Amino acid sequence: MPPVFNKYCNGCGICAAICPCDIISHEKGRRVPKVLYPDECWYCDACVLDCPGTEGHKGLELRIPLQLQLMWMAAAAEEKPPYDLVGERFGNHPDTAWDMPRE
Amino acid sequence: MIEIDPTPLECDVLAAGGGMAGLMAAIGAARQGAKVLVAEKAHALRSGSGATGNDHFMCYIPEKHGPDMEPILKELLASQIGGFHDVPLSRKFLEQSFDRARDWDAWGIKMRPTGDWSFCGHAFPGRPRIWLKYAGSNQKQALTRAAKKLRVRTVNHFPITDVVVQDGEVIGAIGIDIRRDTPRLRLVRTSTVVLAGGSALRLYPSPAPSLLFNTAWCPANTGNTQAIAYRSGAKLVNMEFPNLHAGVKYLERAGKATFIGVITGPDGKPLGPFITQANKWVGDITADVWNSVFADVMKSGEGPAYMDCTATEQEDIDYMMWGLKEEGNTALVNVMARENVDPRRHRFEFMQYQPFLIGRGPEIDLHGRTGIKGLYAAGDAVGNFRADMAGAATFGHIAGEHAAKNTRALNGGQGVQASELLELRARQYSAFLERGEGAEWKEANFMLQQIMRDYANAEVRSGTLLSTGLKALGDLKRHAMDRVRCSNSHELMRMAEVMELMDCAEAIFIAALAREETRGAHRRSDFRFTNPLLADKYLTVWRDGERPKASFRQRVTDMAGYAAYFGKVYP
To answer: Is the peptide bond before B183 cis (omega within 30 degrees of 0)?
Structure first.
């Protein structure tokens, strides 16, 4: 999950050495480090920041899990209800208000 | 049995933790000519809450603020970090803060990114600005380099888990060498230790319950300093007050004040009275003073609340994005880019996070000492002073300096190798490692979070809830010690963290039980009032043998009060 290595990884192991949460393992002779504890990632980006990579590219990137996706909305919120009402109308919405008939 | 390295490391001053406070303590001590060792759980280049940067440094600069420090002190004490200060410490901090800012500047941290010392953010309109805006993305590299230049020795991947105290004096420390898959214990022979373990995260659940390490401050900070101090018999203070922080929804991040925007409701109208448009000098301070705004509007149904930067000028947005990068929020900046989220068109939902410990912990005197001879504390873990990054820098340096001048010869006694504490830890750790079947450390951590969320939260507390929680915590401790199994160094380190968290939790429960009133986010349903008689009373908790103690003391506001309390307690 969190850090994902790509073809630009040069196998130096800096990411494994500096990870504040000790989630990456790099064994000598093993080219690409391994993420041993993906769910202990802090998403601090230190591994990416310190990655020398190759050819000007980083050898890994941070994948943010779906649970942590940003919650944002456009500045002007939609005024219209996001559905079509079929049949009778009840409730308080100005478009759908329904008055109690009096005896 | 777990292997114990037979040769202890030796030093005059040990910094337990290589974060900002630990490195500054090391530098302060090394400047006095001491032989200094930094023991760091991860790697000093990128560890702790300052790992990837920061952007605000509380600072008094006479040439900018004028010769009178008093208005700045007043502003500090009124700020969101000013609630629990013994004031003589705040004064000493302010007096030395600029020296440390200049140190950092000299070491290559951009303390004057605009060319001059400039203060912005966290400010009330029309009031003095006290937060120096800096660009700290390289701060850990710079401090590591500065420490190395002064011949400080750093041992990485070596978390200190205990300090050994004999006859009321520090004689050494115990840590776990986690460089190899198989852990071993390593000892440090030293007469002075500066505890610099940072805040305590992972005590309460993450906003994304499945992700234990989704925390704003560093999740490897687990109340190490508070726990070690508590175990050593030092006094913890202000533990009953939950500290709450807010920020981007679900992806828990620090740096709320870096956003240059207005906090609005769903209709786009500001929720606070301060501003309707933000700029880089003055942001919306609403969440600093109305700490629970994001949670309140969710509970009332008026929410959610947003960080709204849509009215902010593009120039200020650029400045904000630069600030987010410099304070280490590059992961967030990258997500925004990937998802095409534009602060001028989109509003970010914000939320209140669960409490964590910062500015609650061991009380220190003007030299950074706890009440135990040779034991110092600095940084986010300190309980009677807080100034975040600048606090770590200033009081870290003060503690290191004083420790270096007050080392003792360690001739008498059998030393750390023969201590009962070492024997106990070796036995406990070996049991974790030798158990074939068992619980995972995570099970204990999650259970602890459940207990804290339900019985010691920031919404409602009571004698019955707290007592129940404390009992559950005791059971958890016993079960965890009897049942957890660790298969390697990494897991043993995590379990040692859970042990620290459980000790912090105990101190929180004791303190919360003892403060029989409602004050701030400490809300007792069985004591609904705020008792004026307790207004300036700090509550200390400590362990006397195995038995916890709690005692109120006067908050220290001047040197007479300081002499009356610290003069007696801290010989």
So the answer is: no
